[in-house]
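Tutorial handout. Part one gives the primary structure; part two gives the three-dimensional structure as tokens.
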Amino acid sequence: MASLVRAIIWLGVLLSVGCSALTPSQAPSAAPPASTATASHKTITVAVGNSIKGFSPWLIGTTAGGARALYEIFTNGLVTNDATGNLAGRLAARMPSFDDGTIVVQPDGHMVTTWTLRPNIKWHDGVSFTADDLVFSWQVNSDPAIPSPASVSGPQIETVAAPDPLTLVITWKGTFYRALYLNFYEFWPYPEHLLGTTYASDKDAFLDLPYWTTQYVQLGAFRVSDFGLGENVVLEAFDDYFLGRPKVDTLIIRTIGDPNTMYANIKAGTVDIISEVALPTELNLRLRDEWQQDGGGTVVQRDGNWFFGNIQYNDQYQRVPAVAHDVRVRQGLLAGIDRPGLQAFSLPGLEGPSSDSFMPPFDPRAAAVGQPFARYPFDPAGALRALADAGWSKAPNGALVTGAGEPVVIPLRSTAVSAPQMDVVAQDWRDLGLQVDEELVPASLTSDRSFRATFPGVEVTAQMNGDQILPRFDGRLCPEPPTFAGAQGGCYRNPALDRLIDQLYGTVDLQQQGAVLQDIGQLWADNVVMLPLYSSVTLAAVRKGVHALDDYTGVTMESAGQMSRNAHLWDID
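Part two.
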């Protein structure tokens, strides 16, 4: 058993794998919004399309808009990913290993991982970070009264202990193939000295602390100086950062909701970096082509997300119940989308993997999964037959109507980044005779969990591909009011799928994992749980004179923030 566990853990690693600090109340005033680079002070401005609601697992929001990709500027976890995408220690001094006994499978089936922390880590207020902070963090992260992230690892942990200030021991409920993937999102660190008393006495007050916005204290290279209502967040270099003082003095995260305005700003030099998924692909490609001519900067690229039409399964919000309850309707909607054409439209001159599979091609389990959605080619006539079987028919004017003669109106929503794709899907459905009510998510609501979770029909959205997409369809992670914590999505519930997910998490043999993932793919395709659209590449932009994102191709979506993992090395001429 131990050899099998060792194999899968290491394969997972390969795949994925001074002045004293000021407290928030002492923080200096915000720097001017324009970028500067002088001998005495350097400032870099990063543009995003969505505002930052706050700094916590329940406020981080989705990847849309690009703000989430910047969280490793100010927050750190036990691990991150290196330039090749492999796991690397961050708060941890090194990765646990079977070779030195820091990963052990016990006779009773429990797995134990022992982490050694770096000795020189400080919180932004100057207090030393210890393993006791992570024990406290686990208490918070696992507390059902506290909104939790859609963590894969969290439910698998049984106990967390700190035998000494620099050692953390995690006991797992069983063998778990993702036991080393403890990035900041999977295991969010909290300072016990600042939050412990309020957490113990009043959890409602705990959730309302100014700590989560204006007084955030964490472990990143930059500390929050001015929250700026989440629209213009000013961060100052943390002199005692354990990897060395940042080269830049100030970072500004500036929200620009309109993509064309964002584009104009980086061309004018008032923005230095555009975060990933903040600009639509066509604007990024236009910027790339112009910069290739005039040397104005660089557009960097990595493999991207799996885009799909997410279905609202919660009857409280779904306006067209047949979409949620009748697989024939979903089959018709999917067959009515020209997915090859959508991929070519979305990635002009670029290649992305087929949308027929949720697994990335480089994953060794991808061959076993195959392409479960290949059975749904673009077929308008077949789409109409499926919709007719569901009771929808053509009226004399060509519009599709229900059995009661009512026109079918499909609500379709997307963020600004996916708006062109939404338009293409909407037109394909209109060609079938459907009416489509398109809605663009305002930039101010991109990270609003309640708004995103209550979409009224279908939402064009994206998720990291591979098994990291599973929480989006885990019925136990359905977002519920009032906090809507959990996996953002349409609240799909299927006990059979949940059992397969649990089976995968406890499976240590690669071949067996591939078989379970194949079963998951077949279940998804049989039930058309979502509408696969296209697989993307992800782009970000850096203007001339700014030194950042040199290792962007090694970025994965594991931590949803590692685009910024080396922000302490960013510089500007």
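Part three, for discussion. The two ends are 54 Å apart (CA to CA). Confidence is low (pLDDT under 50) at residues 1-37.
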